Amino acid sequence: MQEKKGLPAESSEQTTVVDVLDVAQEEAEEVSTSTNPQDEMYCGVPKAELFDTGIDGLNTEEAMSRLAKFGRNEVVSKKTHPLLKLLYRFAEPMAVMIWVAIIIEGVNQDWVNMIVLGVLQVLNAVVGWWEEFKAGNAVDALRAALKPEAIVKRDGAISSISAAELVPGDRVMLLAVDGIVTATGKHTFFGRTAALVGSVDEMGHFQKILLKIAFILIGISIVLLTVTLGYMLSKGGDVLDTIAFIVVLLVASVPIAMQVVCTATMALGCRKLAAEGAIVTRLSSIEELAGMDMLCSDKTGTLTLGKMELQDTEMASEGFDRGDIITHAALATKWKEPARDAIDALVFTTQTLIHVCI
């Protein structure tokens, strides 16, 4: 899995996106053919005025003005503050059982057991939180290193800038034609989609399994402890001694470190994947991806290496062989320039191998 393209209570992550209008299409059509006045505006500015960019592109002053007005070309997603994640560790089902045991030991004034349980509680929470925090830092570092750039024309000169600095009306240099940026950030199609997806906070499959196991074990433990408590009291046992014994059984019967061990294991896998150039947004997604039988994906490099390999060629007519097909494909690409995408790289590599074999 490899992707090479994303103190207040909440911080944010940014993903760079952009909508581009083909210049040839723009010259052939109006920017918008809708009769709805709202469709003729972009953030309160007429589209006809905003996208009427000359052949030399925007000037630097206008670009900076639009950047200040429309914001950076980034999709901001909510991210829970690390301290809140740490506090949440103390409210998980397993942690709640330990809190109950700590309270009981405190009532019995068994300070040694109370301190031991408290230390165990803190260690479980901190270790799990720290492993997840380090995995998140590795992903953030990779995302920062993979900031995309765009070739833009401003002040009549072509230059490379961070894609996050693109503004509506920018003239960008694409592979085949020039393009005019028609939307940035949250106003793009991707930005609107990301906002809808981000509003759904669904628990991962692996987390659901762990939570279900925890509730089952806790339920069984409560039933057994209740029966044990009733039996010992019916035999005339001391109440405090009985409660102390119940606490020991409670701590022994519940796998307190289950969540920590699972988190630490997935965090190690996340850091290893990050070293290979993969961006893992959720730790539980590692287990979910490993459980797949079949993955259908495009060739954008989102979940692949971004590399293609020619397996076979189908001939539409007689008189041509594999070498002819690859040669014509190579001539159709910009063979004087370095390969810009996976398809061009595939054609060049295959053509080179054919010549070497010949």
Automatic annotation (TrEMBL):
GO terms of molecular function: ATP binding; ATP hydrolysis activity
Protein name: Cation-transporting P-type ATPase N-terminal domain-containing protein
One GO cellular component, as annotated: membrane
Residue stretches spanning the membrane: 209-231, 243-268
InterPro entries the record matches: ATPase_P-typ_cation-transptr_N, ATPase_P-typ_cyto_dom_N, ATPase_P-typ_P_site, ATPase_P-typ_TM_dom_sf, HAD_sf, P_typ_ATPase
Keyword list, A-Z: Membrane, Transmembrane, Transmembrane helix
Keyword Transmembrane: yes
Species of provenance: Cymbomonas tetramitiformis
Pfam families according to UniProt: Cation_ATPase_N
